[in-house]
Specification:
GO terms for molecular function: hydrolase activity, hydrolyzing N-glycosyl compounds. InterPro entries: Ribo_hydro-like. With 47 residues, the protein is an all-alpha fold. The chain has one domain. 34% of the residues lie in helices and 0% in strands. The protein has one helix and no strands.
Length: 47
């Protein structure tokens, strides 16, 4: 449990809390490349 939230995600996008960063934020994604990689990996499990 968090002292800030219960069942929610809190994002300190503007770094107000002075806590160290603990996440990588994705701004752009190669959607076609991601989908191709996902399908390739899933085929290993179910063919």
């Amino acid at each position: 449990l968090s002292e800030l939230t219960l069942g929610h995600t809190a994002v300190d996008f503007w770094h107000v809390t002075d806590r160290p960063h603990n996440v990588d934020w994705v701004y752009e994604v190669d959607a076609d490349g991601f989908y191709d990689l996902l399908v390739e990996r899933l085929e290993r499990f179910g063919g």
